[in-house]
Design goal:
Radius of gyration of chain A: 20 Å
Strand order of the largest sheet of chain A: 1-2
Largest sheet of chain A: 2 strands, antiparallel
Radius of gyration of chain B: 20 Å
Oligomer: heterodimer
Helix content of chain B: over 70%
Largest interface: A-B, 44 and 42 residues
Number of strands of chain A: 2
Structural class of chain B: mainly alpha
Shape of chain B: globular
CATH class of chain B: Mainly Alpha
Mean pLDDT of chain B: 91
Strand content of chain A: under 5%
Structural class of chain A: mainly alpha
Helix content of chain A: over 70%
Mean pLDDT of chain A: 90
CATH topology of chain B: ABC transporter involved in vitamin B12 uptake, BtuC
Order of helices and strands of chain A: HHHHEEHHHHHHHH
Distance between the termini of chain B: 19 Å
CATH architecture of chain B: Orthogonal Bundle
């Protein structure tokens, strides 16, 4: 395998890693502050993608599509927080899992009812649709580079929000002691709605961005959701830094495993068998990584709470 | 006689009478629906042991259901093509005999449960939920990308497997077989709940510290519960594959795990007949609402949401009141 191909795969791994980070950051933020496990996070990803595809189809503008994705996912997030999720904070995890599973059924079938079962397509903006030659002769799509840049920008933005703003102070205080900050006069239920909407907006943004390289369809969110779970199990629940490291590890393992394992099996068997066996085992690589981290550190790389 | 016992008796009577009614009303399809409900109930009884008794919120029970299904699919497909399963170090032939298939399904799914349990029980709470979900997804993707047994397309079996003395191709006889297995497992479950192990497990869910203080290891109790639970769900998977004469990665999907959990919740967690009531209601809703609207799962979602938010204890809980031990 040539170094150029390998470098391309590393970039692909980074790109899928930062998109996973957008999902995992919202999930881990919501769990950290409200102690809630939200299976419907994948539905918010789907809502973002559908809103973007619908608006891009109507106006032809990718920028408007992104705004629509953020707005739709944040609004949907705030709405389901007000109607359903806030009744679940005091419940056990089983109730949270079931109620958010019910939300997946409602949101998925509702979207299928509105948009039909056929996938929609979201075109990437014309300015970003070409390729660029990177130092070392790597030809790489501009759009995927832009995704990496957006992911890094969001990570920096979240760090700034968390460490440098008043909202960030409240979020961290909410993670540590919700009774105390309520007693200090912070409207805790508003804070929760806001945090949930921020997490939802991040998921919607990821859905819209990824929607331009994959098809936009019902059920697109759940595989990503489960990967994001793997990410936060690896990174440690409640830790945004853990989510970033975990997301990059998972993105790289998944992408590189898919390329390298078939190559590895070629050393032992004929190419056809090697390709099939290699890709079968590559699909298990990230879960093996997760199992390894669990044996080493049951609460994840950066997790403190259980 | 408590209300719960009356309800259990009524449910059992209904299951026994359904085929008679179906023949009388000349609606033979009802028997297939009822078989589906009975098999789902069996899978949910399995989950209920881990979830209700052990307090383990497993979102990965489709793994065991699917392994049971593939045990049937792989053995029967080798038998129907007259090729051995493996030739080295010794020859293992496929089989069309249900008891053998069940045994393989139970052993294979218990082994998977043991492995998953050893890893996932290192953690608890929300980690456990995510990890079981992740291992489920791992098996799902493995089944999709492993081409030897159909990959994404799954495996079809031409003729339903046989059971000595029965003609399993007759729907009512296959139904009887499934119902008998469900009753056996329910009897086992009832004994388990009252056994020293069941009581210790119940205690480990409620106050692990005290269980530890009397010298028992809560983790080990939970691991055994998960293995028993996986074995029963695996058996149900083998039956489900036989009912459809088809097995595909769908049986391993996370939606399947969610559905098995829904059976338990709609019926009533930790109630002996909760899974039976839940699976029955699910199949009924699927049949009735599925006929009304293509998007019937919206209504299923709403029903589930209402049960979770406002109806603690599921259907059995609503009719028979809270569990005595709370």
């Amino acid at each position: 395998m040539s170094p150029i191909l390998l470098a391309e795969q590393v970039l692909n791994g980074l790109q899928s890693g930062v998109m996973l980070f957008l999902m995992a950051a919202g999930l881990t933020l919501i769990f950290g502050v409200m102690g809630l496990i939200n299976l419907a996070h994948g539905s918010l990803y789907m809502i973002g993608a559908f809103a973007a595809a619908a608006v891009a189809g109507a106006t032809g503008s990718f920028a408007l599509a992104l705004v629509a994705a953020l707005a739709a996912a944040a609004a949907a997030g705030a709405l389901i927080e007000l109607l359903v999720i806030r009744r679940l904070y005091a419940r056990d995890h089983l109730d949270q899992v079931l109620a958010t599973f019910a939300l997946i059924l409602i949101l998925s079938e509702g979207t299928r009812w509105l948009f039909g079962s056929f996938p929609l397509y979201l075109n990437m903006p014309a300015g970003l649709s070409g390729t660029v030659t990177l130092p070392g002769g790597i030809v790489y799509p501009v759009y995927r580079l832009a995704l990496i840049a957006v992911g890094i920008a969001v990570a920096l933005g979240l760090w700034w929000l968390n460490a440098r703003t008043r909202l960030g102070i409240r979020i961290r205080a909410g993670e540590n002691d919700r009774e105390m900050i309520a007693a200090l006069g912070v409207d805790i239920s508003k804070l929760y709605t806001l945090v949930f909407a921020i997490g939802a907006a991040l998921a919607g943004l990821a859905g819209a961005l990824v929607g331009a390289i994959q098809s936009v369809q019902v059920g697109m969110g759940e595989p990503v959701l489960i990967l994001a779970f793997v990410v936060i199990v690896i990174g440690g629940i409640g830790s945004i830094k853990g989510a970033l490291i975990g997301a990059l590890l998972v993105g790289l393992t998944d992408t590189l495993g898919g390329v390298l394992l078939p190559e590895l099996f070629k050393l032992f068997t004929d190419p056809a068998t090697a390709a099939a066996t290699g890709s079968a085992f590559a699909s298990m690589a990230i879960y093996v990584l997760m199992a390894g981290v669990l044996i080493w550190r049951p609460t994840g790389l950066f997790g403190a709470r259980t | 006689m408590s209300r719960e016992r009356l309800l259990n008796g009524a449910l059992l009577l209904a299951l026994i009478l359904i085929p008679g009614w179906a023949l009388y009303a000349d609606e033979p399809f009802t028997i297939t629906l009822a078989t589906r409900a009975v098999i789902f109930a069996l899978a949910a009884v399995g989950l209920n042991i881990a979830l209700g008794l052990g307090g383990l919120v497993s979102l990965g029970h489709a793994v065991f259901f699917g392994i049971g299904g593939y045990a049937m699919g792989i053995l029967a497909s080798h038998a129907q093509s007259y090729t051995p399963l493996i030739e080295w170090p010794f020859v293992i032939e496929g089989t069309k005999s249900m008891p053998v298939i069940w045994l393989v399904a139970i052993v294979a799914s218990s082994c998977a449960a043991l492995l998953i349990g050893l890893l996932s029980l290192r953690t608890s709470g929300v980690y456990f939920i995510m990890i079981t979900l992740a291992f489920g997804q791992m098996m799902y993707f493995f089944a999709i990308s492993w081409p030897a047994y159909g990959g994404e397309d799954g495996l079809s079996i031409y003729v339903r497997n046989g059971f000595p003395g029965l003609n399993t191709l007759v729907p009512i006889q296959f139904y009887g077989l499934c119902l008998a297995l469900l009753c056996l497992v329910l009897a086992f479950n009832a004994r388990l709940m009252r056994s020293p192990f069941g009581l210790a497990l119940d205690a480990a869910r409620q106050v692990p510290e005290r269980v530890r203080a009397v010298g028992l290891d809560p983790r080990r109790l939970q691991l055994v519960a998960l293995v028993i639970s996986g074995a029963i769900t695996g058996l149900a998977g083998a039956l489900f594959a036989d009912l459809n004469r088809f097995v595909s990665p769908t049986m391993l999907s996370w939606q399947m795990s969610g559905e098995i959990m829904v059976f338990v919740i709609i019926g009533g967690v930790a109630r002996l007949f909760g899974p039976v009531a839940g699976a029955g209601i699910y199949v009924l809703l699927e049949h009735l609402l599925g006929g009304v609207s293509e998007y019937w799962q919206i209504f299923l979602g709403l029903v589930l949401l209402m049960v979770v938010l406002f109806g603690k204890g599921g259907v059995v809980g609503m009719i028979a009141g809270r569990r005595r031990d709370g």
